[in-house]
Amino acid sequence: MNEAGKQIIWIGIFVILAGIIIAYKNSIPWINKPGKLPGDIVIQKENFSFYFPVVSGLVISLLLSLIFYLFRK
User: What does the domain layout of the chain look like in residue ranges?
Assistant: First the structure.
């Protein structure tokens, strides 16, 4: 199998996974509230709100790293 065929297969898998996530997004609690995972820093005061999505950033970074790793293979 050539490289173009492998890339088409990976793109197909990615599209299927994205479709599953979109179809069941109400059942997955962290999909509905991005930036609100346990470990994200949230400071709310009277006239001030500060969000620092530590864990959300790590999850996104890991997912992107995995996707790019799979496309390099």
Answer: 1-32, 33-73
pTM > 0.70: no
Give buried/exposed letters for 13-40 (b at 16+ CB in 10 A, else e): eeeeeeeeeeeeeeeeeeeeeeeebeeb
Over its length of 73 residues, how does the chain's per-residue pLDDT go in tens digits?
677 888 888 888 888 888 887 787 777 665 656 566 777 888 889 899 888 888 888 888 898 898 888 777 6
